[in-house]
Backbone:
C-alpha cells in the first residue's frame, strides 16, 4: 500500500519511522511518502494561507496550493483523507476499509482549515473522506495522519508479527478487550484471576469473553447497543442477562 501525507510540518511525521510502522516501511510493506505542501507554492514567501472571505478569525489554506499538490498525487485509485473535526469519526471499521485501499493521500490542514472547494473538487475527482479523531479540536491534521497511518499500517499483511493479536484486541469484534495480566501472580496484594492460572483453555476463553462483554457494557454501552446479535452465542446472552439484573443494562439482542 502507498500513503502520501501532505503537510506544512513534514517533521511531525518523523515518529512513523519508529517501531512497527518504521519497520513496515523498511520491509517494503508500506510505501510512505511525506511531502511539504510549501513545495507547491510559487511565491518567494511560500505562502499557503490567506484571510477568510467574509471575515472572521484566523487564516484559511489556499485552494490553488492544495490543488497543485493534490493534482500531482491523486489518481483514479486514490482515496483522499482530509482530517477535520467536522469529519466522520475514525473507528476500526473505517480503518479496516482504508487498509484495503491501494493508495491513501492524507491532506493535513492547519489554521482554520482548507478552502471548502478543495474537498468538493476531489470528492468528484477521486474518493474523499473527511476524518475526525473525535469531538475535540487539535491544531492540525498531522496528529490525525499519525493515528490513521499507524492504525492502517498495523492491519497490512505481515506488519504485526502475530496476526492473532489483531483478532483479540479491542474493537476487533465490536467489544473492548478483556483485561490482561503477566507475572508475578500477586502484585501489591492484587491477585491475577485464578482462572487464568488454571490451564483450562475453554474456561479462560469464556472468562475473557465475559470480561469483554462486562467491560463494554460498563464503559461503552453505545458499542454494545450496536453489536450484531448474530455474533452472540448462548453463553454471551447469559452473561449479558446477568449484567441486566445487576446493572440495568440492556441486552443488545433483545
Ligand atoms: N483537526 C483539528 N481537529 C481535528 C480532529 N478532531 N480530527 C481530525 N483533524 C482535526
Residues:
Amino acid at each position: 500500500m502507498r500513503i502520501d501525507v501532505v503537510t506544512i510540518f513534514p517533521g511531525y511525521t518523523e515518529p512513523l519511522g519508529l517501531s512497527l510502522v518504521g519497520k513496515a516501511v523498511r520491509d517494503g510493506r508500506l510505501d510512505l511518502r511525506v511531502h511539504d505542501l510549501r513545495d507547491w507554492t510559487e511565491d518567494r514567501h511560500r505562502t499557503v494561507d490567506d484571510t477568510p472571505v467574509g471575515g472572521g478569525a484566523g487564516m484559511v489554506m489556499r485552494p490553488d496550493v492544495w490543488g497543485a499538490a493534490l493534482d500531482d498525487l491523486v489518481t483514479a485509485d486514490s482515496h483522499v483523507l482530509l482530517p477535520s473535526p467536522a469529519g466522520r469519526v475514525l473507528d476500526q471499521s473505517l480503518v479496516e476499509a482504508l487498509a484495503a485501499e491501494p493508495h491513501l493521500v492524507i491532506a493535513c490542514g492547519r489554521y482554520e482549515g482548507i478552502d471548502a472547494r478543495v474537498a468538493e473538487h476531489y470528492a468528484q475527482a477521486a474518493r474523499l473522506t473527511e476524518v475526525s479523531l473525535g469531538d475535540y479540536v487539535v491544531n492540525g491534521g498531522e496528529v490525525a495522519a499519525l493515528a490513521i497511518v499507524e492504525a492502517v499500517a498495523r492491519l497490512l499483511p505481515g506488519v504485526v508479527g502475530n496476526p492473532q493479536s489483531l483478532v483479540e484486541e479491542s474493537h476487533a469484534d465490536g467489544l473492548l478487550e478483556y483485561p490482561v495480566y503477566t507475572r508475578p501472580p500477586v502484585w501489591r496484594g492484587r491477585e491475577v484471576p485464578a482462572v487464568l492460572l488454571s490451564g483450562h483453555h475453554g474456561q479462560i476463553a469464556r472468562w475473557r469473553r465475559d470480561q469483554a462483554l462486562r467491560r463494554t457494557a460498563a464503559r461503552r454501552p453505545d458499542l454494545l447497543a450496536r453489536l450484531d446479535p448474530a455474533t452472540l452465542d448462548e453463553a454471551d446472552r447469559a452473561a449479558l442477562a446477568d449484567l441486566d439484573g445487576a446493572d440495568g443494562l440492556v441486552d443488545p439482542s433483545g
Remarks:
- The first strand starts at residue 2 and ends at 7.
